[in-house]
Task: inverse folding
């Protein structure tokens, strides 16, 4: 099986193309699982992280942490996220530990073109979601 | 226990441990071995199934042939009886009996094949189900594990870099601010372009003696002359004009 970095070769250029020429930067994150950070110009605060297991390729965008949610509106937020899940194209909401994420999954052998498309859509969805759901945040 | 239930139990426990403990390496190894074994037995069962089904088809043909023989010989028995050939009829009847025995054996073999086909199909179905279940189990476990471990790597990387995770609201504000700045800059640039563009054009027109600018001096002179003429008419005594006018 190809290493994650080898599989992502050319992802920066392809994602940049998909996003109308924004500068896209890839950076491997050290650790015991392969993780690559994708930074997109003008959206540096919302990087996309790509990681993989034997079975899947996962693109993650961390949205906010539990302690940022307005406590009195938490239940409403959770329901809204579940309601939104089927409608958000290619991405789903989730939680990892205490952090809310938007994530997209691809097959482990996904083509770099498809990963680029996924990253672009995930970034747009994340920005949109953050903007739309900020009313639930402190 | 279902794999989703297992993950739920783990998630309700300590998140810190998830990276290591969703599925221990040993269990994964066992599952992977079981998948291999199950695949092997599926392949074997499929081979065997093909053989048994071939035998079943052969015995079907055999049964049809024997049934045909019985009909044919029974007709011959009748024919022999009609011709009062009792001894011959007995002989043919014995033949029919022998064929009937063979038919019974063949029918039993056919039934045995059918039972074996059913058994093999069931075996393949259950082995496939086992493979799917283990693959799903490993998939869910490994994915959960890599998500949590990746999150830990990312958090560590961010804190090691001396920076901290900015809050979502702050991130959104910054992104918005940048977008507004960009939009403002673009508007300003457009306005500047327009202003400079207009000025430049006006200057060219004036130089060519066209437009408001070019006629401004002329209009001023005209206005002053008109006022002067009006002043002269209003006060006749002070008219400085010569007498012959």
Result:
């Amino acid at each position: 099986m190809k290493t994650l970095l080898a599989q992502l070769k050319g992802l920066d250029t392809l994602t940049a193309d998909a996003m109308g020429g924004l500068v896209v930067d890839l950076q491997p994150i050290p650790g015991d699982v392969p993780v690559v950070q994708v930074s997109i110009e003008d959206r540096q605060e919302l990087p996309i992280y790509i990681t993989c297991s034997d079975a899947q390729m996962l693109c993650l965008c961390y949205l906010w942490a539990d302690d940022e949610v307005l406590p009195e509106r938490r239940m409403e937020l959770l329901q809204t996220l579940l309601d939104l899940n089927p409608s958000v194209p290619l991405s789903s909401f989730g939680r990892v530990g205490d952090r809310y994420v938007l994530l997209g999954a691809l097959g482990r052998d996904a083509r770099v073109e498809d990963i680029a498309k996924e990253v672009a859509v995930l970034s747009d969805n994340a920005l949109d979601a953050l903007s739309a759901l900020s009313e639930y945040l402190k | 226990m279902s794999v989703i239930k297992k993950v739920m139990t783990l998630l309700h426990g300590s998140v810190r441990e998830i990276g290591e403990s969703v599925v221990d390496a040993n269990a994964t190894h066992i599952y992977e071995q079981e998948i291999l074994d199950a695949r092997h037995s599926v392949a074997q069962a499929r081979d065997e199934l093909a053989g048994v089904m071939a035998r079943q088809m052969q015995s079907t043909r055999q049964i049809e042939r024997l049934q045909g023989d019985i009909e044919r010989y029974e007709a011959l028995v009748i024919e022999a009886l009609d011709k009062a050939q009792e001894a011959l009829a007995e002989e043919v009847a014995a033949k029919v009996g022998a064929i009937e025995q063979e038919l019974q054996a063949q029918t039993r073999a056919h039934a045995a094949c059918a039972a074996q086909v059913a058994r093999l199909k069931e075996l393949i179905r259950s082995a496939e189900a086992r493979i799917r279940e283990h693959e799903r189990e490993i998939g869910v476990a490994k994915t959960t594990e890599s998500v949590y471990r990746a999150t830990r790597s990312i958090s560590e990387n961010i804190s090691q870099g001396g920076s901290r995770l900015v809050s979502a609201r702050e991130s959104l504000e910054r992104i918005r601010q940048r977008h507004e700045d960009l939009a403002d800059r673009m508007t300003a640039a457009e306005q500047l372009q327009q202003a400079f563009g207009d000025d430049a054009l006006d200057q060219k027109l004036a130089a060519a003696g066209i437009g408001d600018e070019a006629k401004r001096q002329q209009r001023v002179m005209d206005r002053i002359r008109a006022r002067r003429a009006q002043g002269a008419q209003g006060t006749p005594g002070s008219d400085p004009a010569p007498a012959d006018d």
User: Anything to note?
Assistant: The radius of gyration of chain B is 53 Å. The CA atoms of residues 59 and 108 of chain B lie 10 Å apart. Chain B touches chain A at residues 15, 135, 138-139, 142-143, 145-154, 156-157, 165-172, 174-176, 178-179, 182 (CB under 8 Å). The helical segments of chain B are 3-12, 15-21, 25-82, 86-160, 168-207, 212-234.
